Amino acid sequence: MAKPILVLNCGSSSIKYQLIDPDEETVLAKGLVERIGDAGNGIVTHETDGQEWTITPQLHNHTVALQAVFKMFDDHGPGLKNVTAVAHRAVHGGDRFAAPVVIDDEVIATMQELVPLAPLHNPAVIEGIRAAQSLLGNVPHVAIFDTAFFTQLPEEAYTYAINRDLAKRNAIRKYGFHGTSHQYVSQQVPAVVGTDLGELNQIVCHLGNGASISAIKGGKPIDTSMGLTPLAGLVMGTRSGDIDPGVFAYAARSEGWSTERIDSELNKNSGMLGLTGDTDMRDVEAAFEKGDEAAVTGMNVYIHRLVFYIGGYAALLGRLDTLTFTAGVGENSSFVRKMVCDRLVGLGVVLDEAKNEARDKAPHLISAPESKVKVLVVRTNEELAMAKQTEHLLAS
Ligand code: ADP
Fold first, then answer.
1. Which of 33, 81, 100, 108 has the most CB atoms in a 10 Å sphere around its CB?
2. In what order do the strands lie in the sheet with 322-326?
């Protein structure tokens, strides 16, 4: 009999969920709740067995939202009585959580202490945990942190060159995010290239709306591009990625902006949106093809930053064996992959253009046989990874 795990991803105004059978690697149901806390109506969309249902109740908070989700399961199935655990995507674990953990009062108290590091994300996660525990109290609830994989980073990679006492007092360091994806994707690579994980020097490019890149040696991360917050590193849909830290103070003075205003500008109005007016890479590509000046510049900035990181990480690794693309842009944009690989001839990268264009859901190679670095496309699946990690934790 299936032993499904309910995977929950609670954001400030949304909840994504999947009911997963981790052994069969199948999704039994999935759905999305939007506009939680909105004065108007919320939206709950539930999919199972190839059918989809939508309801639009008022959703004052996460408890009411999860009650609506559970009603969807009651009305349309599958039943939740066999659920063995609930896995919660917890964003920021600071340096406190290096692995998934069964949630108890102490874990929630620690997550509460970490709220200043992730003021938008962690409160929603805690509220979601409390709501789910009240509705499904008889099974273990597990927290899986986006930062956990990167707690293994070496000190020289996670330390910022600022005053040591200031850093210590405020826990200012690189934490890294998208860890579940970087770990899952890097673990798919050995089977494709026929080399053990322990022998591989990898770079993984997670290019979605949020984007990050990591260097992984023998299965362990040695650097990653996101930092104290998910704002650092690559150019993203709406986030700036790396800028001169001096821009912050300069913009405060020249525009008279508050800290909150600058934070919001860099997180929500920058990246591809700020450069081109579009956040979706499909729109940027279409505008680029038409020769739109802002799109051409924006795309070149995006690629330049990515190539810069790949070169730096190749140097840190000493030898680069594999370069893997994942997430929305990485999995779907042959255009971005080609632009990146064309600039990596210096590293011995040779793309197989036909393979790059072919669509294949399974992890696959897109480099030519003579390429010194094997280039891959691997679909990420953070929900499945979370369900498997939860099953593993509870079996141990
Ligand atoms: P996130 O989980 O960070 O919200 P995803 O990994 O789902 O993001 O990626 C979403 C992004 O993927 C979209 O905003 C879009 O830019 C990009 N994307 C999806 N399909 C394509 C495609 N066919 N070509 C180019 N970009 C695509």
1. 33
2. 220-224, 211-217, 201-207, 322-326, 374-377, 364-365
* Minimal-distance CA residue to ligand 1 atom 21: 332
Cβ neighbours for 283, distance < 8 A, ≥ 6 positions apart: none
Residue 43, token pair as written in the block: 């939206």
pLDDT higher at 4 or 396: 4
Structural domain count of the chain:
2
Q: Do 374 and 304 share a structural domain?
A: yes
CA angle, 328 as apex, 350 and 173 as ends, to 5°?
Answer: 90
4 Cβ inside 6 Å of ligand 1: no
- Whether residue 111 is found in the same domain as residue 245: no
Do 17 and 98 contact (CB within 8 A), yes or no? no
pLDDT digits (tens, 9 = 90+) for 18-29: 999 999 999 999
Asked whether residue 41 is assigned to any structural domain, the reply reads yes
- Whether 387 is in a domain gets the answer no
**CA proximity to 271, closest of 333, 229, 227, 210:** 210
Q: For CA atoms 346, 153, 376, 206, give the dihedral sign.
A: negative
Same domain? 135 vs 211: no
CA 212 vs. chain centroid, Å, equals: 8
Residue 104 Cα, ligand 1 centroid: separation in angstroms? Answer: 35
Tally DSSP H helices, then E strands, for the chain. Answer: 15, 14
The phi, psi pair for 325, rounded to 5°, reads -105, 135
Pocket test for ligand 1, best of 280, 288, 326, 356 (most atoms within 8 A of CB): 280
pTM of the model: 0.96
Residues 77, 390: Cα–Cα separation, whole Å: 23
Distance CA 206, CA 121 (A): 20
In this predicted model, what pLDDT tens digit does every residue of 210-255 receive, in sequence order? 999 999 999 999 999 999 999 999 999 999 999 999 999 999 999 9
Q: Which two tokens stand for residue 86?
A: 């609930």
Helical segments of 88-196, H only: 105-113, 122-135, 155-158, 164-170, 179-193
Does 229 share its domain with 338? yes
Cα–Cα distance for residue pair 133/131, rounded to 1 Å: 5
Q: Is residue 183 part of a domain?
A: no
Ligand 1 site, residue 11, Cβ cutoff 6 A: no
CA distances from 263 to 30, 145, 246, 257, 271 (A): 33, 23, 13, 10, 13
Do the domain assignments include residue 390?
no
